[in-house]
Amino acid sequence: MSDCIFCKIIRKEIPARIVYEDEDILAFDDIRPQAPVHTLIIPKTHLSSLKEAELDQAGLLGKILIRAREIAGLKGIDSSGYRVVVNTGPDSGQEVYHIHFHLLGGRRLGWPPG
Ligand code: AMP
Ligand code: ZN
Question: Considering the entire predicted model, what is its pTM?
Fold first, then answer.
């Protein structure tokens, strides 16, 4: 997607603080962090949201969850704990329509979320 901001980050057309990258996924720090650790993990193929995900993408999306655990380790929050959030659609506050998994931690997180 040529005008998608996260696709531009994948193509390195706009800068990001990249935390992890492999052939399928990219993780980079959120530009407006809501916690001491706030990293976004995205697939390198464009997918708007969880709503559009198909079963044949289950492997890719599952891989992101497993990598989230490893990225939490890289960020030093694997023992203290963390939250993985996928905002989906208007009521969730989703702003960027390239699916992303928020990895949040480094402080005690409130529940329920606002
Ligand atoms: P959401 O509300 O779930 O769609 O989250 C989108 C997230 O992307 C927000 O937390 C933004 O701060 C973050 N964001 C938007 N643009 C950038 C960018 N260029 N680099 C890093 N994070 C971004
Ligand atoms: Zn995209």
Answer: 0.98
